[in-house]
Amino acid sequence: MSFRVYIDGQEGTTGLQLQEKLAGHGGVELLRISEKKRKNTEERKKFMNAADVVFLCLPDAAAREAIRLVENPHTRIIDASTAHRIADGWVYGFPELSKAHREKVRHAKRIANPGCHATGFIAAAYPLLAMGIAAADYPFTAYSLTGYSGGGKGMIAEYEAEDRPKAYDSPRQYGLSQMHKHLPEIQKVVGLEEAPIFMPIVGDYYSGMATCLPLHGRLLNKKISKTDLTQLLQEYYEGHPLISVEEKEDGFLAANENSNTNKLRLYIAGNHARMTLISVFDNLGKGASGAAVQNMNLVLGLPETQGLL
Asked: How many DSSP H helices and E strands does the chain contain?
């Protein structure tokens, strides 16, 4: 049986990545709207209601409008925007976090795909609270490096322009107001009393992300060594083929080492007094389209990693 899938917003960065992944998926039929009619509301509505799964790859306001077009009760929606990540009635699409998360995704009609920076933070922090290693009032901070493709077509064009500003040669920090759009989902999903101090940084490379969470051993609920924490996290993510955990010694760590994959590698570096948890993944893969296909597979009852490995 082949399931029908439609991408609303097929020309954006995530939409294009989804088309590429679905082309080699083997279990779905991609419904393609005419280029001339892709912004025609009635034509979009027809495609949405004919699909088993609709991906929304749209700006937030457009995503909120798009869901009103879906009248077919059997159509499942996976929203890649920020619009519904903390909204009532929507399931957060990070199935590795727990058995409960996975079951909710399997039976969901409305799934909010996680944000890229949020994916890296939550992959590291959620297990710490779930295992009682850190408390909900732990003063988390994080810095997160991303390739410029995370900014979409506009930022890609800016970085690849011949006459780009000299500042683009250097890593650039943003979200300086501590009001980054991923903070609400991070706080809610992890269960933090306060949002973390969060420092996103865009670099002069296409894709790849390294989200870094420093930990003070003295502020954790229990004393724990780097090796013990590595083992606990390995056990936590055991059986999840897209997430792996390993201890990291001194040396360099490249933010783009998992580019062009759908995997996330969680490193534990430092020592028992001061550790850093580092999530390394592709902002376009596990941080966007890869996670969306994973969620689609689950709701359709297909092998979770089909089209991803």
From this structure: 9, 13
Residue 145 confidence class, pLDDT cut points 50, 70, 90: very high
Q: What residues are annotated to the active site? A: 116
- DSSP reduced 3-state for 257: coil
% residues pLDDT > 90 (the chain): 95
- Spell out the residues 6+ positions from residue 86 whose beta carbon is closer than 8 angstroms to its own: 112, 184, 185, 188
**Cα–Cα distance list, 237 to 76, 228, 303 (Å):** 27, 14, 18
DSSP 159-200: HH-TT--GGGGS-EE--TTS--TTHHHHHHHHT-SSPPEEEE
Please determine, for residue 1, whether its predicted confidence score (pLDDT) is greater than 80: no
Residues 6+ apart with CB under 8 A from 260: 207, 282, 285
Side-chain half-sphere CA neighbours of 180 within 13 A: 24
**Buried-state track 166-197, b at ≥16 Cβ within 10 A, e below 16:** eebeeeeeebeeeebebbbbbbebbebeebbe
d(CA 233, CA 264): 13
**Rounded-to-integer distance, Cα 128 and Cα 179, Å:** 24
Strands of 141-147's sheet in order across: 172-173, 197-203, 141-147, 209-216, 274-281, 264-270, 243-247
Q: Which residues in 7-45 are b (16+ Cβ under 10 Å) and which e?
A: bbbbebbbbbbbbebbeebebbeebebeeeebeeeeebb
Query: What is the pairing mode between strands 110-112 and 91-92?
Result: parallel
Q: Which amino acid is at 83?
A: A
79 bridge partner residues: 56, 112
Which two three-digit tokens encode residue 143?
Answer: 């810095």
